[in-house]
Amino acid sequence: MIPEKFWSKNRFPIVYQDNEPKAVMVDMASFDKIELILDNLTRREAEPEDAFLAASGLLEKLVEEAKASPVSQDWVKDLNAI
């Protein structure tokens, strides 16, 4: 069974203004899910691993390495190969 993709523009009606998408309407059940996720993200406490990674300078090195890498033609295949 394939799970339903929750974060999809096709799932919610889009409100247009001057032929440009401006907003998305969500039902209350979906809003409750989104609100729970956002609340959890904003209340998330820093983890020791985050501070260690930031202080080590490794994060900046990884970002630079990623920027210098060629764009994957099939990122799903590449990810599965790891």
Distance between the termini: 25 Å
Strand line-up in the sheet with most strands: 1-2
Number of strands: 2
Task: Report the helical percentage.
Answer: 40-55%
Number of domains: 1
What is the makeup of the main sheet?
2 strands, antiparallel
What Rg do the Cα atoms give?
19 Å
Q: Give the oligomeric state.
A: single chain
How much strand content do the residues show? 5-15%
Number of helices, where a helix is a run of at least 4 consecutive DSSP H or I residues? 4
Q: What's the SSE pattern?
A: EEHHHH
* Category by helix and strand content: mainly alpha
Q: What is the residue-mean pLDDT, rounded to a whole number?
A: 83
* Apparent shape: extended
Q: Regions with pLDDT < 50 over 5+ consecutive residues?
A: none
Question: Would you kindly provide a written description of the structure presented here, covering whatever features stand out?
Answer:
With 82 residues, this protein is mostly helical. It has one domain (9-69). 51% of the residues lie in helices and 11% in strands. It has four helices and two strands, in the order E-E-H-H-H-H. The protein has helices at 28-42, 48-56, 58-68, 75-81, and strands spanning 14-17, 20-24. It has a two-stranded antiparallel ribbon. The protein is extended and about 45 Å long.
